[in-house]
């Protein structure tokens, strides 16, 4: 249960159908040890009642500045909060927040908050794309608020499009990242930047059943995408055979093979300010593909598989950049051998690839792949070596973006 030193979170809930999903977000925040005050609008209570919010948060719930006037809640809640997250955020509350209106407890709290503020929009596509909403979102972002891009998918009724509420677990990951970095105003050094991140491991099929692949889970790439969103970037995530849920606020493109990955990365890079290649593309593929399952034979002989080399995406992108100021970073999963150490191989690869930064990490049975933690040395073409000690993949992701931002 939250204690006196627990992070203080204000969860604003507005009157959209996605309000019911905010119950899951509230539970995740509370179970993580945060002290959460839910501040719904009057409209939100048409979807989820006050008793539900109070029971899940273990805190009183109010909507108006006239409740508990002696505590001055419209001032105190914002002043004391470590994070304010409005989920869902309707077009109405985005407009009020952008224009400084304060006609209830939630909008008054937004005006007094000096901590990071996150808006999670959810509305019909036409409302999200309306010039008025886009202008309000731009205003809020310019002031330092984080306004997540809504997801695409099924909306109310039979409608489908952009405007869907992201999954609560992914919104929670954004909140956790922000709280871990302190209650200072959000670092928005990637605001206005368009970045591309690749993640996962490619597959090269021998037949309809079998493929050549690797153990990459995509966790590091997804951590990079989340961190970029938190820092204000517009993020395209190119995911190769990843089963993780899409991070909130990210545009995801799914690919299978190394050639698929190459095409997607090169296309996305045309309009990007940075590309971070965290995916593990297969270096080789079978020369031929059999359109039926390869059968075992009675003489127990094994088929011979001839391999050909796949394109080197990182080297191609680094040497043929669509923009001179494009920052390119790559990953090198290495093991030491008789010819050199992990760092020796990393330095050689940096020179050969031609990227600006190369994240070198040692891999093994219990290192790197499929783990929630990581450690690395980030090599720069300027001769720099940045050691990132063992820690979360989120921490490594932020250190990488630190170095990318420096190169702009």
Description:
This protein has 408 residues and is α/β, with parallel strands linked by helices. It has two domains: 8-180, Flavin prenyltransferase-like (Rossmann fold), CATH 3.40.50; 194-407, 3-Layer(aba) Sandwich (Rossmann fold), CATH 3.40.50.10300. It has helices at 22-31, 50-57, 73-80, 91-98, 105-112, 125-129, 131-142, 168-180, 219-230, 258-269, 313-319, 342-353, 393-407, and strands at 8-13, 35-40, 83-89, 117-121, 146-147, 151-154, 160-164, 194-200, 204-205, 211-212, 234-240, 250-255, 274-277, 284-286, 307-309, 327-334, 357-362, 373-380, 385-392. An eight-stranded mixed β-sheet has the order 12-11-8-13-16-17-18-19, with helices on both faces. The chain has a five-stranded parallel β-sheet with strand order 2-1-3-4-5, with helices on both faces. A two-stranded antiparallel ribbon has the order 6-7. Residues 190-406 form the DNA/pantothenate metabolism flavoprotein C-terminal domain. One of its GO terms (biological process) is coenzyme A biosynthetic process.
Keywords:
single chain; 408 residues; alpha/beta; Rossmann fold; 2 domains; five-stranded parallel beta sheet; 32% helix; elongated; EC 4.1.1.36; phosphopantothenoylcysteine decarboxylase activity; CoaB-like_sf; FMN
Largest beta sheet: what is the strand line-up? 12-11-8-13-16-17-18-19
CATH fold call of the largest domain: Rossmann fold
Our count of domains comes out at 2
Count of discrete alpha- or pi-helical segments spanning 4 or more residues? 13
What is the CATH superfamily label of the largest domain? Answer: CoaB-like
CATH-defined architecture of the largest domain: 3-Layer(aba) Sandwich
Strand content: 15-25%
Shape: elongated
Number of strands: 19
CATH class of the largest domain: Alpha Beta
| Helicity range | 25-40%
Structural class category:
alpha/beta
